[in-house]
Amino acid sequence: MENNVKLKMTLPDIPDIELVAVEGLDKMARHLGISDEKIGEARILVTEAIINAIEHSGKEKMEVDVEFTMTKEKLVIFVRDYGQGFKPESVEEPDILKKMGTENKRGWGLKIMKSMSDDFLIESNENGTKITLIKNLV
Ligand SMILES: Nc1ncnc2c1ncn2[C@@H]1O[C@H](COP(=O)(O)OP(=O)(O)O)[C@@H](O)[C@H]1O
Ligand SMILES: [Mg+2]
Question: How far does the centroid of ligand 1 lie from the alpha carbon of residue 38, in Å?
Answer without folding.
Answer: 24
